[in-house]
Amino acid sequence: MLAFRLLTSVLVLAVSVLASGTPRIDKNKAALLVVDHQVGLFHMVKDINPSEYVNNIVAHAALGPLFNLPTVLTTSAETGPNGPLPKEILQLHPNSTIVRRNGEVNAWHSEEFRAAVRATGKTQIILAGITTDVCTTFLALSLVEEGFEVFANADASGTFNKAIADDANDRMRGAGVQVLSFFAVICELMGDWRSTPGAAQVLPFLDRFLPSYGYLARAHAAATNNGTILPGEAGLN
Ligand SMILES: *[C@@H]1O[C@H](CO)[C@@H](O)[C@H](O)[C@H]1NC(C)=O
Ligand SMILES: *[C@@H]1O[C@H](CO)[C@@H](O)[C@H](O)[C@H]1NC(C)=O
């Protein structure tokens, strides 16, 4: 009898996992959060080198205009040593809400921030922050508890060392957060190279932020005797 009950609960669990599946990003359901990517906090990031990391945080913020995602930016005590958001990020978001927190470590503890996130009307959240283990993780756990599907852009969160990042990412995964790379985020948002935004907008974006892919496209353009990759700097204008 016990064995039967156990078998039944295992089957019920398996069916519910299969039925719900792994959440996927849907650009129509997603909002973007930029969490404490402040110029002072930048100095604590040692698990990614600074040149790569500045690229990754600007790329994260640039997903907003590229995919027309409502974006909420937030900072923690920005008049102190944490400092403001980098100007590149601010320039990408002239009209997005910025919530300047005066004490709340977990952004979700700010009423103004909760209201701004809810005002997006979206059910999925893509986020990244400094540090991975505090600013990203604390908020991600709260967002899961609030019923959002949460996607952490691992390339745009940073912390003191890789072991701390790994533990933080494990903690988030344990709570049901999807932890994925910037490339996975952008490909899941796009879905199909023939969409809009698709190849015409995403290739120039990758050329700017993910040179390995940009140069693949350039090599192809050169080999096919057409030096054009694709015009513009989509997502940045
Ligand atoms: C920001 O808002 C202003 C005024 O409504 C508008 O002219 C401008 O195009 C907007 N910029 C972006 C990037 O949405
Ligand atoms: C080069 O490729 C681009 C993108 O596919 C295309 O728009 C353009 O017409 C091509 N130019 C030539 C000379 O084939």
From TrEMBL:
InterPro entries given in the database record: Hydrolase_YcaC-like, Isochorismatase-like_dom, Isochorismatase-like_sf
Pfam families: Isochorismatase
Chain segments annotated as transmembrane: none
Span of domain Isochorismatase-like: 31-181
Superkingdom field: Eukaryota
UniProt keyword terms in alphabetical order: Signal
Keyword Signal (UniProt): yes
Annotated signal sequence range: 1-19
Residue ranges that the Swiss-Prot or TrEMBL entry lists as coiled coil: none
Family assignment from sequence similarity: Belongs to the isochorismatase family.
Protein name per UniProt: Isochorismatase-like domain-containing protein
